[in-house]
Amino acid sequence: MAAEQHNPLTQFEIKALVPIQFGQLDFSFTNSALFMVIAVTLATAFLTIGTRRGSLVPGRWQSMAEISYEFVAGMIRDNVGQEGRKYFPFIFTLFMFVLFGNLLGMLPYSFTYTSHIIVTFALAAFVFVGVTVIGFMKHGLPFLKFLMPTGVPIYMAPLIVPIEILSYFTRPVSLALRLFANMTAGHTMLKVFAGFVATLGVLGVVPLALVAALTGLEFIIAFLQAYVFTILTCVYLNDALHMH
Question: Domain of 73?
Answer without folding.
Answer: 2-242
